[in-house]
Amino acid sequence: MRKITIILLFCGLVFACGQRGNVENTVFEGDKDGLLEGDSMVYGLACEGCNDSVVVLLPMDGSDPVSYDIIEARLNQKVLGQMRVGDWIGLMRNAEDSTVADLVIDLDELKGTWCYVVMPKLVKDVPDSIRDEYLIPREYGFSLKRQWMAQSVGYVREQKSVEDKSPVVYPRLLFFTGWHMLNGQLIVTSGEFGKDDDSDDMKIVSTRNDTCDILYLRDDSLVLGSDGVTRSYYRHTNVEEINREAREKAEKRLKESLGL
Question: Which 3-state string (H, E, C) describes the chain?
Answer without folding.
Answer: CCCCECCCCCCCCCCCCCCEEEEECCCCCECCCCCECCCCCEEEEECCCCCCCEEEEEECCCCCCEEEECHHHHHCCCEECCCCCCCEEEEEECCCCCCEEEEEEEHHHHCEEEEEEECCEECCCCCHHHHHHHCCCEEEEEEECHHHEEEEECCCCCCHHHHHHCCEECCCCCEEEEEEEECCEEEEEEEEEEECCCCCCEEEEEEEEEEEEEEEEECCEEEEEECCEEEEEEEECCHHHHHHHHHHHHHHHHHHHCCC
